[in-house]
Write a structure and sequence with these properties.
alpha/beta, eight-stranded parallel β-sheet, 25 strands, Rossmann fold, about 40% helix, disordered N terminus, 4 domains, disordered C terminus
Length: about 700
Amino acid sequence: MYCNLALLRTCIIKPRPIWNAFSVDVCFPDQTWLRTVRHTHHSTKSSHFIQSLSREFISPKESRWNHRNLHKSLKKSLHFTHFPILQHDRFFSTSLSSTIKKFEDMENLDPKSKRALDQMGLVHLTEIQAKSFDIILSGDDVLARARTGTGKTLAFLLPALERILKNRSMSASQDTGLEILILSPTRELALQIYEQARALLSYHDNGRYGNKLAAQVVFGGTSKQQDFKSFNKQLPCILVATPGRLKDHLESTQIPSSASYSSPQSLSDRMRSNLQILIIDEMDRLLDMGFIDDIKNILTYLPPKTKRQTLLFSATLPAQLKSVLETTLKPGYVTVDCIQDLDPATHTNTQVDQSHVIVPSKTKWISSTVETILYITLQAKLSQGDNASTPYKIVAFFPTTSLVSYYADLFNFGFGIKVMELHSRKSQNYRTSVSNRFREVSQGILFTSDVSARGVDYPNVTHVIQFGIADGRETYIHRLGRTGRAGKRGRGLLVVTDVEGPGFLQSCVSDLDVAKNKDNDLEACILMDSDNNVGHKHDDVHDGTTIATAVKREAKQLLDPVLQAIQSGKNDKLQKAAEDAYRSLLGFYIAQLPSIGIKSKKIVVDKANAFAQQAGLTKPPTISFKLAKTLGIDKLDGIHIMDEYSREEDCHKDNFTRVKENRFQSADSRYRGDRPSSSSVKSKNRQYLASSYEEWGTRIPIVKVPK
């Protein structure tokens, strides 16, 4: 099939060198893929490729032109795109995506897998699934990049499972298990991958023994003994793990004897002999979290890269990924990319409407958060009058763990409005329970830190609200990816103050089309100081009151009693939560100064003090001298330092001591040495004193000991 030369000039050509060949995808501007061209030549110069391309696409009649002129014309008009850090990989073939749209139409998919997919309610392949299936099934190493929420998990699970099933049917060995290893950066993502793997295996059985193929997940915060019991019961076909816990098992865990081994073996030995496919999900996140050394250590326990298939999936391709590619992937790996580098808008989900609101930090920081949540819930309730099937499901992100705790306590205990709370200080059982509950509810609100930013799938999320800036562009994108999943529409709202907002919008997300909010009711709700009748009227709001005015009045009625209770010392729980949030704010925003374009730390101090005032605190909370010195704010006005090395007058070391609440009956009893003589208590005292500065958000109040 030939095409017109003028039309060919408008196409985008994506070449990839493969030793002495070019693998090329040709697509039209509307992203309709035309065909894949594979040009083999001893030279990979673009001139030789263009000559081959012209012979492939231009009819003999049209190619009567002088070949030299044709070559110049094509070279001048065609567009070649490249990834900056990828040099020796092949580019993807798209034959599957252009011909097959449904799982049921795939001839090389096991009927039991089709049955499981139907049970999971999955019908159509996403772009990343369609483009990667044949390549993974063929045994090539793959580096894949796709937007969050586009089905990356199934994109590697399904072809990896089909490849294992095919290899099992061709092998006479009775030693099975641990054929697929999946590394995940977080516990939540590991659990999610495990649930999908278990669902995919639900109709598959181990033909030799009659039991179903198994999946298993191991991660920190749970019992290693329980992991061992699961290994002892049945070795999983698919093992999902976080790096730390997997490293522990590889170093110490013994696997019982089997039909192929008369004596127990270490997990690492069995992994080295059985592993066929290594999958690393959210590779960019693993690098951000500092797992590079653990990953390199884990690779020493696995088969060499020449004897295994490796799949790396990521939403972004940071520069530091290059060194990892060289050690994990075989030469000639295939790159499957569903994000166009030349179009930054494709880095975020097109199903999500993004907008931002900038609020004054001196007056509207806390109230704007409350009003935003109330506005969205009220708007959803009013819309349910016409369509009762449109509930709200909100994921609200905050910059620090202490801020999550403060706002969760404010809503749950201050207002009596139930919200779910999720962050790293909660136990693993609690986090798992909350995640599962939020997945199952049709309507709810989740306040969370960045533990929910990547990889976690919460169905039917209608809004993602980011209160405060993210710690980078990638984190903003991943947070936004919690909505607009599975082809559904979603809304993303960024609520920032006038201190950090302009700098973050300009330096980090300027190319992501985060437009200014155009909802006049929302803007009137959170920006207007007066509760006059502003905004648009709604038939379901009584007495001619607008939505914005109704929300502002409700927020005022909720906030005023709580703030008065904190000011009068009648609500210790919220007072302590606000103090912890204040300290965490100082640490977070001072660390973000370069990204938001602020040079003066005094601006951050004033911002934090404004938060303390709006939270009902009569004065800024005390911080330790060590923390103030670390942050470089120990000599700034507005900081209340209270420590043994304080700058305050008449303050010396013997007059102050740190006391943890509810640990001892009084501060002076510990100071004077008449504390309980139990060795366990003494040990806990030493452990506490050693760890008192571990986290900025958990400072203990400094109490002056009476003489």
